[in-house]
């Protein structure tokens, strides 16, 4: 009986060692992270989206309260394929705000259009680890 338990335990550990998101069919992915600031202050609750200049899928990540982001290729796979990208940064998906009467305040984009709808930002993703920071200015 003890031999069976040991074999079972070894089989479970072997199976767990191989557990990871299914990467079958995925392109080579590079790690991409960085920090976003607006006028020198950390920009939290912003979405950073990398749009490939050639064919491919967009990769995105949301900034933390300290302005840090990490790109994701899918909801459970981090990274972005190496290549050239146009970058859009928006606060559209930030938490909704309400006035003192509990009425939702209409959304106003706090990030200038030159960083999102009319973006001038670009980035180059290389194989391996990439730290790509964005220092945005409101004027």
From TrEMBL:
Superkingdom of the source species: Bacteria
Protein's name according to its UniProt entry: Carboxypeptidase regulatory-like domain-containing protein
Taxonomic source organism: Planctomicrobium piriforme
Native organism taxonomy: Bacteria, Pseudomonadati, Planctomycetota, Planctomycetia, Planctomycetales
């Amino acid at each position: 009986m003890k031999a069976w338990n040991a074999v079972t335990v070894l089989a479970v550990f072997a199976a767990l060692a191989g557990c990871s998101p299914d990467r079958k069919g995925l392109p080579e992915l590079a790690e991409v992270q960085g920090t976003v600031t607006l006028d020198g202050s950390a920009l939290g609750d912003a979405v950073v989206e990398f749009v490939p200049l050639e064919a491919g899928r967009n990769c995105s990540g949301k900034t933390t309260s300290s302005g840090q982001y990490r790109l994701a290729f899918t909801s459970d796979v981090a990274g972005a394929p190496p290549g050239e990208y146009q970058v859009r940064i928006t606060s559209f998906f930030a938490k909704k705000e309400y006035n003192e009467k509990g009425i939702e305040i209409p959304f106003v984009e706090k990030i200038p259009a030159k960083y999102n709808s009319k973006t001038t930002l670009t980035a180059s993703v290389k194989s391996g680890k990439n730290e790509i920071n964005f220092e945005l200015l409101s004027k």
